[in-house]
């Protein structure tokens, strides 16, 4: 039973020594069976290595401890068919946590603690800690918090074991079964064992090795260590973890047993001096500088992770082309496989680099699994809009995409969700289309309704699985899946095709495992869904490389170590290399120390894990035979700054001549392949096309790609698209005529939109591009509703000849209730009755309207002005007046339609006065700067139009706000004070005539030294309007404003009719219209495709504005 230890540092050829020795044994007709035991993750690489000598496979085999266990169980007749997988284990533990919630103190949040409970139970089993042992030692522990933790864990552990006893074999128990039975059979007796690539062993594995030492011909174990000094300092000895492991192996022997040791001290792996030097000094406290030129170690600082992977891809292509490397001779090592995975796939596809990423696949992203989950979600979430359309968009239901789009558009517009999916659609659409949509609805929903009837009640879990399985059969899922698999294989996407194949098997296996574990238990559908998802989370798509010639990506723990010429270690940032693991877990380091004193030794704590992490990093840095590429990032994907790893700093000290490259300052003058050159060429075309100064050199590249059959068609399409990308400025003359003719029909608000951003006007009003309609109350809807109600109120008063100045609150309330009820019965206002939420909104709007009308009436009671009209329209067909017409110098006409919320008229002995009142349901400041910039033209335009229709003198242009009033106060205030504040908030704002007599006509209560509560006026003690405390303009100033606005409308209209649609939004006080623009994703103003240009608007005082108006008029 000789034990042999082969030891040496990384790169000394320990594995090669084994395989060479095996080849020699086979060559000399070794009669005894030879086994190479490796960790699971290295078995594939080991098998490849063994097969290099075809004769070796006759009598030698790569095996893992788990595979050995299965063979032994087969030999002794163990019930391996009821093996409990990780998936089954997770579902069972979830069930236990659910049922024992009341009895658990710390682990009673079942969803959060499944992994924790699973890991801890596995840890107990791997370290051969029994329930009885735990119970006994728990009694002796003085630490109360640890005692509570252990009591929770013992309860779960015991329930778990009770559930599986005589039914299943837990995967973690397999090795215990192996150690108990391996000596009872002849399967492995007198065999030769080589144990390779392990960095540590569990107590179970140590027990198996002990038994192997008893039954085998001999056992050889490799160790990556520099010497046999087992008392080294862990803080300075990188091999400390492995020496601890060796010590444990030696303790398995009897005192009189001798071992053979072979020390391999020649670094055979490394083909150059630099890598040998790196191995010697990377973890050496004494740094000796390497003064020679560096050719085989590369260091790169990237802007971010994207450019880092670009750097990796280009260098891989360079190694393939210039160094004759194969892809499978190149490896990438990272600590963040999940972070880099999607980037590597995308960028390597671009560079046509085959790659295998050693990562766990998320089954929840698999198309079949998403499909099944979406069906269950529809039922559980009561046919929510999101769940129904998630199901339809998985692209597994085989409904036509256009039909799904039409259906979704309808459902968004009319708020179809929940039980509304189960009923025929009835809203506002022609009969033919609604009949079609209803037939489509039935095809989609009816099979799910039928399934719901069978499974949406508490019942035996086997019935749920049975009905779900029958549903999949009825929906012909297996054939649909096979069709998709063939499509993927035809596109050479074999990896995804294989995933699809495996996914169906996994689903069936999970169904079987749920059925076996929970047998005849009753479950609600919601509980089944949760169990099923937990099972999926803990199932995996086992992967092997799809191609024998591909770059392998792995982490520091699982990266392969044989025949890799070049290694890229990426993400060498602080906190990653080495890791900073502050989370000690549920059983922390202190707990582990206490348990160890009690005789219970568990897995390693954070300090030991840190030593392991450093050793794994050492292994990563010493994996390459010829070249090592190191890279780190300046910032992460969110732009947050990152620091370099301490290893980067050490590398720079060891190799002072090492030149660090970067893509922050560096300009590239070479390209890896045609594809990259083409992308750079197109990028340059885009950037220079908008500058209108394309470099002549680019035409040489254009000629090259235009004559290349691989790129000719692509180039044509790309250039066509780039022309459309050019910053829009003008519409062609022939299209202007088609869009507008000789008469521009518009409104003041549309013209204001043009001044806000010409391109937005073009998209919204010229091309009439609309947002997708959805059942959502917007500010525009609430504003229109309130305007409509107030207008109807005034019509009611007029028709019933009610004196508005005598109306009381109760009568007002009665009238408004009647009006609102009538309007809600009108299909036009369907949205306000569609949901309970919107019904509550109506109540709030009613409060605002009643309060607003109360103060409108109060204002009219103290005024000589009478309401002349509400909703006064300028419209050819349904208006009080014809549209406002303005003649342009080019002979064309502008026709402006619009609506004035309210017109008030007053007369004296000589004149007739008019004030235009607008109701505002949103906060919007009115100022001279906006008028001057053309952003607020409405009221002055309407005032000007009315003054031209009749000889009115402007008394004011005023805004009355329809906002809900919320009064804030630091001190307690009375009801009267609150009422006064509300009244002040409802005061009309903006501009009145600078005539004290007309001001008093608007507010009869206006007196000396008082502020009006109705209009923006303050009368000083001399009984004149104060210019500082009032918002006033003289008759002449009103006329200037009217003239200026009239000219501005002409200018805007001429711009529109000249086809000017420049993408130039305004910029004022750090605000732009882009922030809330519905078209920002269409124009791409902030996308970086264009050189952006704003229309900057500087704030002006009233005096500055009138001075400029004077000059321009």
Written account of the structure:
The protein is of the alpha/beta class. The protein is 48% helix and 12% strand. The protein contains 41 helices and 29 strands. Strands 18, 19, 20, 21, 22, 23, 24 and 27 form an 8-stranded mixed sheet that branches. A 7-stranded parallel sheet has the order 11-14-10-15-16-9-17, with helices on one face. The chain has a 6-stranded parallel sheet with strand order 3-2-6-7-1-8, with helices on both faces. Strand 28, helix 40 and strand 29 form a beta-alpha-beta unit. Helix 32 crosses helix 33 (809-824). The longest helix has 26 residues, at 836-861.
Lay out the secondary structure.
Elements: E1 3-8, H1 14-27, E2 34-37, H2 43-50, H3 56-59, E3 60-63, H4 65-76, E4 83-84, H5 86-99, H6 114-126, H7 131-140, H8 144-164, E5 169-170, H9 174-181, E6 192-195, H10 203-215, E7 218-224, H11 240-250, E8 259-263, H12 273-281, E9 297-302, H13 305-322, E10 330-334, H14 337-350, E11 355-357, H15 367-380, H16 385-392, H17 401-414, H18 431-455, E12 459-460, H19 461-474, H20 477-490, H21 494-518, E13 522-523, H22 525-537, E14 551-555, E15 566-569, H23 589-597, H24 606-621, E16 627-633, H25 646-654, E17 660-662, H26 674-689, H27 697-706, H28 712-725, H29 733-740, E18 743-747, H30 748-756, H31 758-766, H32 779-799, H33 809-824, H34 836-861, E19 866-874, E20 884-887, E21 893-907, E22 912-920, H35 928-932, H36 938-949, E23 953-961, H37 975-985, E24 989-993, H38 996-1002, E25 1010-1011, E26 1018-1019, E27 1032-1033, H39 1035-1057, E28 1066-1067, H40 1080-1083, E29 1095-1096, H41 1102-1112
Parallel strand pairs: 1-7, 1-8, 2-3, 2-6, 4-5, 6-7, 9-16, 9-17, 10-14, 10-15, 11-14, 15-16, 18-21, 22-23, 24-27, 28-29
Antiparallel strand pairs: 12-13, 19-21, 20-21, 21-22, 23-24, 25-26
Helix pairs in contact: 4-9, 5-6, 5-8, 5-21, 5-22, 7-8, 9-10, 13-14, 15-16, 15-22, 18-19, 20-21, 21-22, 26-27, 26-28, 30-31, 30-39, 32-33, 32-34, 33-34, 36-39, 39-41
């Amino acid at each position: 039973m000789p034990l042999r230890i082969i030891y040496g540092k990384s790169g000394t050829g320990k594995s090669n020594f084994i395989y060479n020795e095996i080849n020699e044994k086979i060559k000399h007709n070794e009669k005894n069976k030879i086994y190479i035991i490796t960790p699971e993750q290295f078995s594939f690489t080991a098998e490849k290595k063994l097969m290099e000598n075809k004769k070796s496979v006759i009598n030698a085999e790569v095996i893992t401890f788990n595979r050995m266990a299965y063979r032994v169980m087969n030999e002794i007749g163990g019930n391996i068919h009821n093996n409990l997988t990780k998936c089954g284990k997770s579902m069972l533990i979830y069930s236990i946590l659910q049922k024992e919630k009341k009895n658990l103190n710390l682990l009673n949040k079942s969803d959060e603690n499944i992994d924790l409970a699973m890991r801890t139970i596995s840890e107990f089993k791997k370290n051969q800690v029994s329930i009885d042992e735990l119970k006994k030692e728990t009694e002796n522990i003085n630490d109360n918090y640890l005692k509570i933790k252990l009591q929770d864990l013992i309860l779960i552990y015991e329930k778990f074991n009770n559930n599986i006893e005589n039914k299943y074999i837990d995967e973690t128990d397999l090795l215990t079964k192996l150690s108990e039975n391996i000596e009872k059979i002849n399967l492995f007796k007198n065999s030769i064992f080589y144990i390779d690539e392990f960095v540590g062993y569990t107590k179970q594995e140590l027990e198996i090795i002990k038994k192997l030492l008893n039954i085998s011909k001999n056992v050889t174990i490799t160790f990556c260590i520099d010497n046999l000094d087992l008392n080294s300092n862990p803080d300075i000895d990188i091999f400390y973890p492995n020496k601890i492991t060796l010590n444990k192996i030696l303790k398995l022997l009897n005192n009189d047993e001798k071992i053979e040791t072979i020390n391999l001290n020649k670094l055979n792996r490394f083909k150059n001096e630099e890598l040998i030097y790196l191995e010697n000094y990377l973890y050496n406290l004494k740094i000796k500088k390497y003064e020679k030129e560096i050719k085989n170690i590369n260091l790169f600082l990237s802007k971010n992770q994207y450019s880092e992977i670009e750097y990796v891809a280009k260098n891989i292509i360079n190694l393939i082309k210039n160094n004759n490397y194969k892809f499978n001779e190149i490896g990438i090592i990272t600590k963040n496989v999940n972070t880099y995975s999607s980037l590597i796939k995308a960028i390597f596809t671009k560079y046509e680099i085959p790659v295998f990423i050693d990562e766990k696949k998320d089954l929840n992203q698999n198309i079949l699994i998403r499909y099944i989950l979406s069906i269950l979600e529809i039922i559980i979430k009561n046919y929510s809009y999101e769940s129904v359309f998630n199901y339809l968009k998985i692209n597994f239901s085989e409904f036509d995409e256009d039909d799904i789009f039409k259906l979704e558009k309808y459902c968004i517009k009319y708020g179809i969700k929940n039980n509304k999916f189960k009923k025929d659609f009835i809203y506002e659409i022609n009969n033919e289309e609604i009949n079609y949509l209803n037939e489509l609805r039935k095809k989609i929903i009816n099979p799910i309704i039928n399934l719901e009837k069978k499974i949406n009640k508490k019942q035996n879990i086997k019935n749920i699985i049975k009905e779900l399985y029958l549903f999949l059969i009825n929906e012909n899922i297996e054939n649909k899946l096979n069709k998709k698999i063939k499509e993927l294989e035809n596109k050479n996407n074999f990896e995804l095709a294989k995933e699809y194949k495996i996914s169906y098997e996994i689903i069936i296996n999970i169904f079987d495992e749920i059925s076996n574990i929970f047998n005849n238990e009753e479950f609600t559908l919601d509980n089944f869904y949760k169990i099923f998802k937990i099972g999926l989370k803990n199932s995996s798509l086992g992967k092997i490389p799809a191609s024998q010639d591909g770059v392998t990506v792995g982490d520091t723990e699982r990266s392969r170590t044989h025949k890799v010429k070049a290694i890229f270690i990426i993400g060498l940032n602080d906190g990653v290399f080495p890791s900073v693991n502050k989370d000690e877990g549920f059983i922390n380091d202190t707990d582990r120390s206490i348990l160890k004193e009690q005789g219970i030794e568990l897995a390693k704590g954070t300090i030991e894990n840190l030593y392991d992490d450093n050793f794994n990093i050492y292994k990563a840095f010493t994996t390459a035979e010829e070249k090592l590429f190191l890279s780190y990032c300046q910032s992460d994907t969110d732009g947050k700054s990152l620091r370099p790893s301490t290893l980067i700093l050490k590398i720079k000290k060891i190799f002072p001549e090492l030149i660090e490259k970067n893509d922050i300052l560096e300009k590239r003058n070479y390209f890896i392949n045609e594809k990259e050159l083409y992308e750079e060429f197109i990028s340059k075309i885009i950037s220079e096309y908008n500058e209108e100064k394309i470099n002549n050199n680019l035409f040489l590249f254009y000629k090259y790609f235009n004559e290349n059959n691989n790129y000719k068609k692509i180039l044509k399409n790309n250039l066509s698209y780039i022309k459309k990308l050019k910053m829009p400025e003008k519409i062609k003359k022939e299209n202007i005529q088609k869009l507008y003719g000789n008469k521009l029909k518009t409104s003041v608000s549309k013209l204001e939109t043009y001044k806000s951003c010409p391109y937005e006007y073009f998209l919204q009003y010229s091309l009439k591009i609309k947002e997708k309609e959805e059942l959502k109350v917007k500010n525009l809807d609430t504003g229109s509703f309130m305007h409509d109600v107030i207008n109807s109120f005034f019509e009611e008063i007029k028709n019933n000849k009610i004196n508005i100045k005598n109306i009381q609150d109760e009568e007002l309330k009665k009238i408004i209730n009647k009006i609102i009820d009538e309007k809600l019965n009108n299909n036009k206002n369907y949205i306000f009755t569609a949901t309970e939420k919107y019904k509550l909104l109506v109540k709030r709007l009613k409060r605002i309207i009643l309060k607003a009308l109360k103060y409108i009436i109060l204002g009219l009671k103290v005024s000589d002005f009478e309401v002349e009209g509400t909703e006064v329209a300028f419209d050819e067909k349904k208006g009080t007046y014809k549209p406002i017409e303005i003649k342009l110098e080019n002979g064309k006409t502008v026709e402006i339609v619009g609506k004035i919320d309210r017109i008030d008229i007053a007369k004296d002995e000589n004149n007739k006065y008019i004030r235009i009142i607008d109701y505002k349901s949103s906060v919007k400041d009115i100022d001279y700067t906006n008028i001057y910039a053309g952003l607020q033209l409405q009221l002055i335009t309407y005032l000007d139009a009315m003054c031209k229709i009749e000889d009115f003198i402007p008394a004011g242009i005023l805004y009355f706000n329809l906002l809900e009033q919320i009064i804030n106060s630091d001190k307690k205030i009375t009801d009267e004070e609150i009422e006064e504040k509300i009244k002040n908030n409802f005061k009309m704002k903006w501009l009145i005539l600078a005539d004290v007599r007309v001001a008093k006509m608007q507010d009869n209560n206006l007196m000396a030294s008082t502020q009006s509560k109705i209009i923006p006026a303050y009368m000083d003690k001399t009984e004149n309007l104060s210019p500082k405390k009032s918002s006033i303009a003289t008759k002449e100033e009103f006329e200037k404003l009217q003239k200026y606005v009239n000219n501005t409308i002409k200018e805007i209209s001429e711009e529109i009719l000249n086809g000017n649609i420049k993408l130039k939004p305004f910029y004022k006080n750090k605000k732009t219209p882009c922030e809330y623009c519905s078209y920002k994703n269409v124009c791409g103003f902030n996308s970086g495709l264009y050189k952006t240009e704003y229309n900057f608007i500087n704030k002006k005082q009233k005096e500055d504005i009138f001075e400029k108006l004077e000059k321009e008029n």
